[in-house]
Amino acid sequence: MIRLDRAVKRYQVDNSNLLALNYLDLKLEENCFVAIVGVSGCGKSTLLNVIAGYDDIDYGYYYFQNEDVSRFPENKKLELIKSIGVIFQDFNLLDYLTVKENILLATRYLDSRKELLPIACYLEIDDILNKYPSQLSGGQKQRVAIARCLITNKRIILADEPTGSLDRENGLKIMGIFEKLNKEGISIVIVTHDENIANRCKRIIRMENGRVVD
Fold first, then answer.
1. What is the pTM assigned to this prediction?
2. Mean pLDDT value across the chain
3. Which of 126, 136, 155, 183 is 20–30 Å from 3 (CA)?
């Protein structure tokens, strides 16, 4: 499904080059449930940004469904970005929109979408659709973020520290949702510092200094 060969990503920081991905090799299979772990600054979030299509690599190859992403025209690159759902630690909800509006905002450039109410019921947020983010708990906010992915029928979800802002109980509930989604055929890739969360996944990938080491 996803393969990176000798991928390099550099950033310019204070007149020096930061090597975020250091000739990284990685392969993710269809319907994977993967945790990516490592110390801060090892390249985990950069890796997610590359997979999501937000950042381009400077050297090497990124293959998505056996196609070289570097050869994608702009419209096909946009389709890649639309096909992958991304969930963040800070939820990225708009405070001035209701839960319902935040979820439907993800569909504004799409011709088709799934029905909102079944997804809201599935995630147990059907009773808060008219509330605003400031009225929600952390666990509820993260379920709203997941709903944004599901309503646009994402088959791949990348989650950057999705339980980092949650207490243990809500973190485990979110992992339970991910496990259920994975059983239904959605590929899940999670960046986490929490070994207990990582151990709930089918596979753990460890990173050091921009490379996969295990």
1. 0.92
2. 92
3. 183
